[in-house]
Prior knowledge:
Blueprint: H1 2-28, E1 51-57, E2 60-61, E3 66-75, E4 81-88, E5 94-96, E6 101-107, E7 112-121, E8 128-140, E9 142-154, E10 160-171, E11 176-186, E12 192-200, E13 211-219, E14 225-232, E15 238-240, E16 247-253, E17 258-267, E18 274-285, E19 291-302, E20 308-315, E21 320-321, E22 327-335, E23 341-349, E24 356-360, E25 362-368, E26 373-382, E27 389-400, E28 410-422, H2 434-456
Parallel strand pairs: 2-11, 21-28
Antiparallel strand pairs: 1-3, 3-7, 4-6, 4-8, 5-7, 8-11, 9-10, 12-13, 13-17, 14-16, 14-18, 15-17, 18-19, 20-22, 22-26, 23-25, 23-27, 24-26, 27-28
Amino acid sequence: MKAGNGTKTKRKMVISLLTLSMVLFFVFFSPFSSSPLPSVVPTAMATFSSITITDVTPTEFTPGETSEVIVTVKNNGGTDARDIKLAFQGTQNVSLVGYTVAQINTLNSWTSKEVKITVHVKEEAPNGVYSIPIACSWNEITTKTTIVGYTTQTLPDGTTITSPNTRTDYNFPEPKSTQLGINFNIKGRAIINVGDITTDPTDIRPGDENVELRVVIENSGEAAAKDIEAKLLLNGKFTPSWSGTDRSYLGRLNSGGKSEAIFHIDIAENIESGTHRIPLRITYKDTQGGEYEVMREITILVKPKPDFEIISFHSEKGNISAGDTGVILHVRIRNIGSSNAESISVRITGEAEVPFEFNVKSDFVGNLKTGEEGEAILKFDVDKDIESKVYPLGIEIRCTGDRNLGDDNVYIFDTEIRLDVSSGSSSGFSVPGFEVLLFLFALIFAFVVLERRRKRL
Length: 457
């Protein structure tokens, strides 16, 4: 009895398990198909949408540049997204031109679309990486499939197939949002060049002093430059008018900016006329503190100018002695300048400092071409009681420039000659060549005395 009861119990357990298995089979599977019913565990409920930016072209800009940028937007999720809005927020150095909000109607799962914007970089923007924040919002649509019944079909071979009838329910949850961003690399540099050059006086001549040079310094680059200093590299033909006038500090120049560097220089007397180039060294820093140095040059025109030298001078009587009267002095000059000279005159200066009284203290020489010589004749008396020595005599040569070259300037050249004056007799008597005659008489006298002594012996 007991054995029979155990067998019955086992049979009931097997039947229960078979029944449970059949119930589960009909719950999860169709009895006539091996395909699972997706409506029971809808896959849409296990997915979501995700908006990201996958590409930006271009990403490199220079200060002051404005360009169109293509932004690739992707739905990196398994659920479709609708009404996507991208609000681009500009910064101080990088901003948008035109509209700042881009909209995409639909972005299906795992798909991408391109959005075009126009980006402008500020001219003074320092080098670096700049980010534009983007506020992104969208709507996500989810669906749920529900079985509402079954449809049975009989095939021609007599086989019947049962298919479920489904209904799709759409769900509109709260809008989603996220914060995105795109980065731009700003690379710019300052380019320092020399612009217009002006001088005061406008016409530069050899020997001019305190000539003012105004040089326009320009920044034609895309970035700002600061601590700008310009220095003329002068040679012997040009020298600073005073300490520091070969330097000029300009400070900061933004992109496209310009300023004047001011210098003061002296021009050598013996400089050749024509065009001269003066090297100009410019040092500056970028906005990050990096140091730079560039070499430029300025060009100035030195116009021709007459110049003179005294090549000889002499008095008609030879030696000059104290008490001489009517001394005629010949002064010969040569034009050694780079242009012809007109209306040349020679004049004695500083006569109060020498023991001479001039009867004719100036003379007109006329015109002299370059390399030509001319002579001035002056006349003076010598004081009686003066010591024997060399006396400096100031000479002023005055002329005008070559009018054929448009040079109406008046030029004055100061120089000097040195006159050797010997003491005269107490009576003031002075005969030209008297010292020579006296020497000859002394020789004759000595010869006569020696000859008489020889005869007595």
